[in-house]
Design a protein that fits this description.
By secondary structure, this protein is α+β, with helices and mostly antiparallel strands. 32% of the residues lie in helices and 21% in strands. The strands form 6 sheets. The chain has a 5-stranded mixed β-sheet, with helices on both faces. A 4-stranded antiparallel β-sheet has the order 12-14-10-15.
Length: 411
């Protein structure tokens, strides 16, 4: 009788083709123009779950559809809920792609496309695994539920209501977030923590229209100048965030945690080379890994204002704005931080400027005990040297869904 592992090896080429087929669908969630592709991706995922031997359905929401599936029931066995998302971030700037983002390409043994590692490739591995067990053993060793959403990259606005309405249906013993990263090539990790997020849009409005800086400069408050001062005030030269009370609930890393991170095979120089920089600065007193995984951060994600075209235009802009986010660690409250931030920026807002601060999405951090029987079971199931990472390091937002699921009572 064929084993699940043998089935996977025999069908590896077919599985790769399936991944490429889903990667070819430009399911960009933040741009309404891609809504037809979002729907197409959701239908594709539901169909693929069905072909794997699972009972799947599309669930309409006020936003993008959810895909839900269950495996054939195994009496008396524990239940795991696998979470993933089929939506992707915009592929801009397109000119920086070596190959088109929605035309999967293999180079040096790696598959390149938007969504390959966030998150289409990850959650499909869980689908392929279930198929392998059902095809060879006729049943799974546990009960599985799948929840694949299409709004993770925009903060999962439809997920909370679904969890509230369907908590009994989603009841499970543990949640497996299929949206993480491995430590390095050939060095997988069990991610047992997720940093939280508080994401904001800041808009400053000044005069009713763009003005000539030669005529009005110095007489009218420039929104872009004020924006620059506000953003610069968020973090000091030592990398410390300056929002009042920001660190009140941050617990220091224990000596054991710092030693565990220091013992990882991390080449800092190689890390910087891979991302194309010659070094970096951050919060003083902490290593790169500590700053990536275990410390709160603040990053400007986008900013605009004034003339952006070629050449010069001496404009005093009517508006200026920025998008920025904080990565949070356990015990930090996103709502409390939002209030303190608003008070801080409002106090900096001078006459002639109207400020609007919007909260795009927020979520507290999550930290699961390493003593959890499910974490221990995952470690025992590994066939290689698994590494336990302190927090999820992802350089792009993991979004609202993962942390919301792990903070929500599903029992």
């Amino acid at each position: 009788m064929q084993s699940p592992q043998a089935y996977i090896e025999a069908n590896a080429r077919k599985f790769e083709q399936d991944v490429c087929e889903l990667l070819s669908i430009p399911s960009v969630s933040t741009d309404p123009a891609y809504r037809p592709e979002i729907d197409r991706a959701a239908r594709w995922v539901a169909s693929r779950l069905e072909s794997a031997g699972l009972r799947a359905e599309l669930i309409a929401t006020g936003g993008h559809p959810l895909v839900y599936a269950e495996s054939p029931q195994v009496q008396g066995a524990p239940c795991a809920l696998v979470y993933g998302h089929y939506d992707v971030q915009p592929a801009d700037p397109l000119e920086l792609w070596i190959s088109p983002p929605f035309e999967p390409a293999v180079r040096d043994g790696n598959l390149y496309a938007r969504g390959a590692s966030d998150d289409k490739g990850q959650f499909l591995t869980h689908v392929f695994s279930a198929e392998a067990w059902l095809a060879t053993e006729g049943r799974l060793p546990l009960n599985l539920k799948y929840l694949i959403e299409g709004e993770e990259e925009i903060g999962s606005p439809s997920l909370r209501a679904f969890l509230q309405d369907q908590s009994r249906r989603l009841a499970c013993d543990c949640v497996v977030i299929s949206d993480g990263a491995q430590f390095g090539p050939g060095q997988p990790a069990i991610t047992y923590g997720l940093r939280g997020i508080a994401y904001f849009d800041l808009l400053l409005r000044g005069p009713s229209r763009d003005l000539h800086s030669g005529t009005f400069g110095g007489a009218v408050t420039n929104p872009a100048n004020v924006l620059a001062r506000m953003l610069a005030a968020l973090v000091d030269e030592k990398g410390r965030i300056q929002v009042p009370g920001f660190y009140d609930d941050v617990q220091p890393l224990s000596p054991e945690e710092r030693q565990a991170l220091a013992s990882l095979p991390f080449d800092e120089q190689q890390y910087f080379q891979q991302i194309g920089v010659d070094g970096a600065v951050g919060e003083e007193g902490y290593t790169v890994l500590e700053r990536r995984w275990a410390r709160p951060t603040c990053d400007v994600n986008g900013l605009w204002g004034g003339y952006q075209g070629a050449g010069a235009k001496t404009v005093l802009p009517a508006e200026a704005g920025a998008k920025f986010s904080f990565r949070l660690v356990p015990h930090q409250d996103p709502a409390r931080i939002a209030t303190a931030l608003r008070d801080m920026l409002q106090a900096m807002c001078p006459p002639g400027i109207r400020m609007e601060l919007l909260t795009q999405h927020n979520s507290p951090a999550v930290l699961v005990s390493l003593e959890s029987p499910y974490v221990q079971a995952a470690a025992r199931a590994s066939t290689g040297p698994w590494l336990f990472s302190r927090r999820e390091p992802g350089p792009v937002a993991l979004g609202y869904g993962p942390a919301l699921l792990t903070n929500f009572p599903l029992n």
